[in-house]
Amino acid sequence: MSKSRFAALASSLILATGLMISSSPTPALAHGMHHRMMKRMIMHGGPIPFYLMNQDRLGLSPDQVKSLLDLKTSFEKKAIMERASIHVLKIDIMSLMRERKIDTAKADRDLDRIAEKKKSLMKAFVDVVAQAHTILTPKQFAESKKLWRQMILVHHEMGHGPIRH
Q: What is the pLDDT of residues 43-86, one digit of tens each?
């Protein structure tokens, strides 16, 4: 093997090793990733998937399960449509910004529409969670809170350590 090939191979190995080491998340980064994951889990269905996952432990009736599934499906459809609409508005704004003379009035209107759609989606999410809570009996709701706390504790004990803010 020639010296230049050996040098190229050695530098490639060093670079690859460096990339692998640098791509490992630090504890602070992992903690941040954990919170983003939890936020995503909550925003993509809130407590409904949790209730359905624990339907036997909560003693949900078939009617309760159907009501929760209908509620979840309805919200998912609305969320998909709103997010798609927001995405299209963002594309429109980016198109405006490619021009030398930007139509700031149009961009402002689109930004306002995006904010309104996000606000509408967040309000709909709160309504869905409120409706989901009323589907459960008070006893089932209390039990779900206990199960949720247990899940969070187990999750944090599995390597994430105590929460420090």
A: 556 899 999 999 999 999 999 999 999 999 999 999 999 999 99
Q: Which residue has the higher pLDDT, 71 or 29?
A: 71
Cα–Cα dist 26/148, whole Å? 27
Asked, for residue 3, whether it belongs to a domain, the answer is no
Centre a 10 Å sphere on the Cβ of residue 140 and count the other Cβ atoms it contains: 20
CA dihedral 121, 126, 131, 132 (to 10 degrees): 100
Give 134's DSSP letter. H
- Domain assignment present for 132: yes
**Contact (Cβ atoms closer than 8 angstroms) between residue 135 and residue 64:** yes
Task: Give how many domains the chain has, as a whole number.
Answer: 1
Is the separation of the CB atoms in 68 and 48 below 8 Å? yes
Q: Which range of residues forms the domain containing residue 90?
A: 44-160
Tell me the C-alpha to C-alpha distance, in Å, between residue 110 and each of 86, 92, 94, 104: 9, 8, 11, 10
3-state secondary structure of 59: coil
Contacts of 121 (CB under 8 A, 6+ apart): 78, 79, 82, 83
Residue 136 maps to a domain: yes
